[in-house]
Amino acid sequence: MPEIAENYGGRVEEIVCEDRISVSPEDLLVTILLYVPTKEAVATMILSKRWLSIWTMLPRLDYRDNNDDEIKKSVCWFLEKSLQLHKAPVLPMLIIELGPQCPSDADVEKCVAKAVDRRVIFLRLGLLWSADPISLPKTLYSCESLKILSLSDKILVDVPSTACLPSLRLLELNSVVYKNENSLVRFLSSCPLLKSLLVKRNKDDNVKKFIVKVPSLLELMYTNLSSHNDVEDTGRCVVIDTPALTEFDFTDHSGDSCSIDNTLCLEQVHIDVYLPSPDLDKFLRSFSAVLFLELGLNDEMILCCRTIKFSRLTMCKILPWDSDWMDSLVPFLKNIPKLKCLIVDYGSTDEPPNASAFWSESDNKDPECLSSSLEKFELIDYTGRKEEKELVAYILTTSRCLKTATISLRPLSDLKLEEKAKMIEELKAIPRVSKTSQLLFKT
What is the average pLDDT across 300-329? Predict the structure, then answer.
C-alpha cells in the first residue's frame, strides 16, 4: 500500500509500506473480523483479493436493524445477499433482529433454513416488522446441533409432530404466537435436555392453557404483563410440572389461574402476581420449602403469606406495592424461623406504599428469627417516611444476631443533601440491641 512522505530536504518519495495484516494466516484474519460488526466485516472484501473471501468464513453473523428513526433502510437486503455468499461449512451463531422498516417479503425462512443446514448452535431471531407472524422452516425443530434458541415477536410457533431438539439447553419464547396449544406442548416435549426456559407472553398468543411439562428443566422465567381487563377468555391457566426445577421467576398480572407441582428441588423463587388467581393460596404454599424468596406484595398476597410457614427460608426480599403490608410484617416473620437476610425494596415501584400505611404487632412476642438467626437487613430507596423509620427501629431494637443493617437512600436528584444528612442522623440515634451490628448507608 503506497504512502507519500516528504523528507526534510524537500524531496518526495514513495514508500511502500508492508501490509503485515494481510499476509497473516486466514484463521487469524477471521478472528480479527469477529471483533467488528458483521456489516463492516463484509465490507473488508473490497480491500484486496486477499480479503475478498475472508469474511465468508466467519463463524458468527449478526444482523440487527438500527432503532434510529433516521435510518429507514433495513439490513434484510444485506442479510439475504451475504448469506448467499457465506461459505463456512459450519455457522455456530446467527442473530437476526428485523424492525418495522423491514419489508414483509423478506425471506427469513430461507435464512433460518441455511443456518440449520450449517449446524447452527446459537440462533436468535426477532421480528418486529408490521407484517403478520411467519412460520419457520420445519427443519428448525429437528436441528440436532442447536443448543440456544431465542424467538421473539412476529413468529408463529408451528411445531410438527416429528420435532426433536436433542441438544437444546436454553429456549426463549418472547411474545410469539402459537398455532395452537398442542404446538407448545410438542415444542417443549421435543427438548429432552432443556435446562432454561424464558417465556414472555402477550394476550393474543392463541394459548388458553399454557402447559410447561419439562422433566429436565432447572430454571423457568415466566412473564405475563397483560392486565385482567385485557384478557377476554375465561378459564385461562398456567400449569407447571417441572420436578427438577431449582429457580423460578413468575410474574403474572393477568389474573390467570396458576398451579405448580413437583417443587421438591426449588431453592430460589420470585413471585409477582399483581391480580390474584383463584388458587393463589395453594400456589404460594408450593414454595414453603424454598431457601430464597422474592415477593411483590399486594393485599391478597399479604393475606396468604400470613398463614404459610416457610420452614427453610433464609433470605427474603420484599417489594411492596400500594398496600398496608407493614400490618402483616410481624405475622409473616413469625412464619420464617430461620431467616438470615431480609431486604425491603421500595425502589421497585414508581409510587411508594400509602403514606398512611401502618404496622402493628399482633402480640408482644417477637418472631423467632429476630432473636436467633437474622444477620442482615437492607432497606432500599429510603425516603424518611414514618413507616420506614418504624421499620428500621423495629429491626434494630429486636434483632439480637444482627451484623449489618444497610440503608440505601433515594437518589440525590430526589432528595437534597441536608435532607439526607438529617435522615442519617435520625437513624444513627436509634438504639441497637445487637452490640456488634453495623449501620451502613448508601447514597
Answer: 85
Round to whole Å and give the CA distance between 191 and 195: 9
The cell numbers describing 295, all together, are 415477593
What are the cell numbers at 410? 433515594
Please give the share of the chain, as a percent, with pLDDT higher than 70.
Answer: 79
Amino acid at 432: R
Helices marked H in 202-328? 280-285, 299-305
3-class DSSP state for residue 41? helix
Q: What is the pLDDT of residues 160-180, one digit of tens each?
A: 999 999 999 999 999 999 999
pLDDT digits (tens, 9 = 90+) for 109-150: 999 999 999 999 999 999 988 888 999 999 999 999 999 999
Residues 48 and 31: their CA atoms lie apart, in Å, by: 18
Please check whether residue 65 is in contact with residue 98, taking contact to mean a CB–CB distance below 8 angstroms.
yes
Quick one: residue 153, left, alpha or beta (phi over 0 = left, psi -120 to 50 = alpha)? left
- The whole-model pTM stands at 0.85
User: Would you call 424 helix, strand, or coil by DSSP?
Assistant: helix
